[in-house]
Amino acid sequence: MIRVLARRSPDVTYFTRDPARELDGVREGGPGWWIRGGGDPTDPTCVAGVLASTARARTVGYDLVVAAPRAVSVLVALDEGRGNGVVAAHRAAVGAAIAYLEDRAVVVRERGGGETRTRAARWSSVISFTHGVNRHAEPHLHDHVLVGARPEGADVVLDARALVAHASAADALYRATLRYEVARRAGVEVWRSFAGVEHVTGLDEGYRALWPGRHAQRGEKVHWERRDIVDLWRADRRRVIPVGVRPAPTRHRGTLDEHRFAGAFEGRLEVARRHVAAAWADAAVFGQCASDVLSSVDALYPELRHGRGVHEATVGVPRARMLERVLERGARPLEPTALGAWSQRSRSLERARERSW
């Protein structure tokens, strides 16, 4: 899940003073990179310019923490030959997630004439910092994306509720894009299980126990040199207890998992565009780039196309699940998705109609 952390202070030295050398040689350049804007990413004054607020607001900006799934972080530690491709894929996926948030979650509320209106906005500049370890020296590929609280040209701060509301969809799009980009750039498949866990094809699941990522204590911040962290990881690997490799599914390659997609709406009364986008991205077992996910959603759900902010237009669950269309078309392709086809239920269409939602 993308974490949305409000920043009350303009002090950005936590980011500018961390060289994140644990990724030297597998990351292009230093840890800081501009998604929009420019300047020296190690200069605190330059980076602090990203943060913008108003005189009345306590929040000056947000730290959006985008973390790779555990298995992908482990891949960077185990396979240096693929490390460059994985880190590049991660940054591409981070950019896609931030683009979605800016398109749908960066809004301001304006009051006038007794009404409150929501207006789309954009950040004036966005900078991100790519790190490769956590405080327990475990592989942990993640970015800190810094943005301002007041959008470009606005007199008020953005509606923070919208950032929180769209964080799940942005995270799903990040992960779908990451799965797609890792296969394209690093030549290894990353797939998502029905339970919502990412797996790397050929990676022993014992590494999840070796480097669990969650600990009772927060740990101390250490600036690692690349050679030192590699030596530590190599020593750690001697303690791994192999538990086996989880085989990747074969029938979902190039398809959208209909079970996963439909199950995402369980318990909802109404479904907004952000819910459909998240469900679609999660159901793309082997990934899909965010732009393809969103173009497919907008083409198949035109009534949701213009939704943004907290209060989006909604549809009912049967419409969200596209039950009628699935029953009519069976396993044939559901254009315009580039995935090609649904993985259809094994039960007959007649039985599905009888048990329809």
Keywords for this entry:
357 residues; alpha+beta; 2 domains; five-stranded antiparallel beta sheet; two-stranded antiparallel sheet; 18% strand; flat; disordered C terminus
Brief write-up:
By secondary structure, the protein is α+β, with helices and mostly antiparallel strands. The chain is built from 13 helices and 13 strands.
Notes on the protein architecture:
Strand 4 (107-112) and strand 5 form a beta hairpin. The chain has helices at 13-16, 44-48, 70-78, 80-104, 160-186, 206-210, 226-237, 258-263, 273-283, 290-300, 317-320, 323-329, 349-354; strands spanning 3-7, 32-36, 61-67, 107-112, 115-120, 126-133, 139-148, 190-192, 198-200, 255-257, 271-272, 314-315, 341-343. The strands form 5 sheets. It has a 5-stranded antiparallel sheet with strand order 1-3-7-6-2, with helices on one face. The protein has a two-stranded antiparallel sheet with strand order 4-5. It is built from 13 helices and 13 strands. Helix 9 (273-283) crosses helix 10. It has 357 residues and is α+β, with helices and mostly antiparallel strands.
